[in-house]
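TICKET: design request
STATUS: open
ATTACHED STRUCTURE:
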């Protein structure tokens, strides 16, 4: 087993409650796939082929309205998983997943996973504990997108993406997709945050300059 495969399955949060032996057994079932920046792993509505585990790179999860408007739900950076829900409920993929940069992903096909779980029935139960936590995060994301002004939601997004103070590796366009708005609105609000001393630009990355002020902005009620 390659190093990247071994490390990916050892460190992916969805498998955190499994034993190392269980993680590597699932890893041995996976097929390695490589994607260029901009390449789609799968589209919303397609039948579920299986579970994708991101071994390197970053992908965006997005949905598109009938009118063609795209909203980015979240970014997933390795090691992480996408398409957990259809793996369990048998439905199609609920969103589109696209590589933002060169990405290596491991696909555990649905039939192989279910066959393994049939032989080890405690494995899916342990995985569902982690899947439940991710569902709670999604509920929080929906609240963030639904409530508050773009300025508030942008402040929240910046704080969540820069907890380690290393900068937010998102373009204005990606931020706009995540917030359900347009690039010009994001750029205008970022310029205001910068003028007010809340953020600064360092090597084309957004860095939090005044976390307390940004947090106050994110929690403002109207």
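STATUS: resolved
RESOLUTION: sequence designed for all positions
ATTACHED SEQUENCE:
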């Amino acid at each position: 087993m390659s190093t990247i495969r071994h490390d990916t399955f050892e460190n992916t949060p969805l498998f955190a409650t499994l034993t190392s032996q269980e993680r590597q057994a699932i890893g041995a079932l996976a097929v390695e796939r490589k994607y260029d920046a901009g390449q789609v792993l799968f589209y919303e509505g397609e039948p579920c082929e299986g579970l994708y585990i991101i071994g390197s790179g970053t992908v965006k999860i997005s949905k598109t309205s009938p009118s063609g408007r795209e909203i980015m739900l979240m970014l997933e950076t390795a090691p992480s998983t996408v398409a957990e829900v259809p793996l369990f409920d048998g439905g199609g993929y609920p969103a589109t997943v696209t590589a933002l940069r060169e990405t290596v992903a491991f696909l555990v096909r649905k039939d192989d996973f279910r066959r393994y779980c049939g032989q080890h029935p405690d494995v899916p139960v342990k995985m569902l504990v982690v899947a439940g936590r991710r569902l709670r995060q999604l509920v929080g994301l929906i609240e963030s997108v639904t409530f508050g002004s773009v300025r508030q939601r942008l402040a929240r997004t910046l704080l969540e993406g820069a907890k380690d103070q290393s900068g937010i590796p998102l373009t204005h366009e990606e931020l706009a997709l995540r917030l359900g708005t347009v690039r010009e609105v994001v750029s205008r609000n970022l310029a205001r945050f910068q003028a007010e001393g809340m953020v600064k630009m360092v090597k084309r990355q957004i860095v939090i300059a005044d976390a307390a002020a940004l947090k106050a902005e994110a929690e403002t009620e109207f």
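CLOSING REMARK: The longest helix spans residues 122-146. The longest strand covers residues 70-77.
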